[in-house]
């Protein structure tokens, strides 16, 4: 027979359980109501969200996560390009600027990447970052990281030629001219990174399959290679003689195409020539001139009007460029968005601007200034480690190079 105290304890426990179960049922009913929102209403909600809020939407419940996955690409396509930026004063973060909403975001870098020395490029939504840890070159490495998905891959550092005197010198970043990151092979489970040296006539590439660097020297081939790009599963290059070529990874060889109506580049070709692959087309940009490479007719075609498209042109080593339709987010068409960072004569200040150059030269040119926050301690000037266009639609997909 139970004592009065033990009996009252049992009744109290039952009452607490009853109330807990009742609260749980109410919570589940409310959660179910949110989870059962119709797709049309979720589409209306998602149109007013920025990229950070949209990512959080996919974490609410299973049905919202399914909606997030199914309509993610459409959402990303409807948003303007971002500017990704980091200075030497910002050790832990890189920043993003939405040119449509003028909103700024920041993302914290993984601990082992925080003190990266240089960003060698932005490719397929990934930042290619060089980490210099010691005076022992063999212990340096490359990190390739997607700041939105968090996916990251480590590569050994490239074996630079002996003619580069000081590997750790600040001038090192200027010896890089172009780089890209892509998946490799028919399965898309291997990865490839390729880097073009600006002053030394060499292409270097490494695959995650063997994790070893290979080199292609072209100093006896004639002409400087100015840019490299992945297009239609192949690696295309352009040189200072206005020749377009295809690089074959398997035999490590470069084959130039015979194309008609190729223009002559000016004496400062190394600063301005870009290969741009967009919308199933291959372009050559000698700003402000734009050419389309018609591979079926084997000729260069000068572009006099971009129509409803706009060219987003990266600056310097950050050669992430695209031709896209800006009408989906209210941007200007038939113009060139030219991104350009410059330093102010103030401590810790680096200003970024982008210029809009209309194809119709009678229309006025517009300049937009973006002032990113500078973090860090100490005195001195802040220089730029990253300043590039970042295109959200390609952040969830990687260009593929066929293993031919």
Automatic annotation (TrEMBL):
Domain of life: Eukaryota
Name listed for the protein in its UniProt record: Uncharacterized protein
């Amino acid at each position: 027979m139970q004592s009065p105290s033990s009996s009252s304890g049992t009744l109290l426990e039952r009452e607490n359980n009853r109330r807990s179960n009742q609260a749980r049922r109410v919570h589940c009913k409310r959660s179910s109501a949110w989870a059962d929102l119709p797709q049309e209403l979720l589409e209306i909600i998602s149109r007013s969200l920025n990229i950070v809020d949209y990512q959080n939407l996919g974490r609410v419940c299973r049905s919202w996560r399914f909606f997030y996955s199914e309509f993610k690409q459409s959402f990303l396509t409807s948003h303007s390009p971002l500017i990704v930026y980091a200075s030497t004063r910002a050790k832990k973060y890189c920043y993003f600027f939405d040119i449509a909403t003028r909103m700024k975001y920041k993302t914290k870098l993984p601990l082992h990447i925080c003190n990266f020395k240089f960003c060698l490029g932005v490719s397929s939504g990934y930042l290619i970052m060089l980490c210099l840890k010691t005076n022992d070159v063999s212990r340096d490495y490359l990190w390739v990281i997607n700041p939105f998905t968090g996916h990251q891959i480590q590569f050994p550092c490239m074996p630079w030629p002996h003619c580069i005197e000081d590997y750790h010198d600040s001038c090192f970043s200027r010896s890089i001219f172009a780089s890209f990151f892509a998946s490799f092979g028919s399965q898309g489970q291997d990865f490839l990174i390729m880097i073009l040296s600006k002053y030394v006539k060499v292409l270097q590439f490494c695959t995650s399959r063997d994790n070893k660097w290979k080199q292609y020297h072209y100093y006896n081939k004639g002409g400087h290679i100015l840019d490299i790009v992945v297009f239609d599963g192949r690696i295309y290059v352009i040189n200072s003689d206005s020749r377009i070529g295809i690089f074959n990874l398997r035999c490590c060889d470069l084959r130039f195409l015979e194309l008609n109506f190729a223009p002559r580049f000016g004496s400062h070709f190394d600063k301005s020539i870009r290969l741009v692959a967009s919308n199933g087309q291959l372009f050559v940009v000698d700003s402000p001139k734009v050419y389309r490479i018609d591979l079926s007719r084997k000729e260069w075609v000068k572009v006099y009007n971009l129509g409803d498209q706009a060219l987003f042109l990266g600056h310097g080593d950050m050669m992430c460029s695209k031709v896209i339709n800006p009408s989906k987010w209210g941007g200007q068409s038939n113009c060139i968005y030219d991104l350009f960072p410059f330093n102010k004569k103030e401590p810790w200040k680096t200003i970024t601007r982008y210029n809009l150059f209309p194809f119709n030269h009678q229309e006025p040119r517009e300049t937009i200034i973006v002032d990113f926050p500078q973090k860090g301690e100490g005195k001195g000037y802040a220089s730029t480690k990253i300043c590039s266009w970042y295109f959200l639609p390609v952040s969830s997909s990687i260009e593929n190079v066929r293993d031919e």
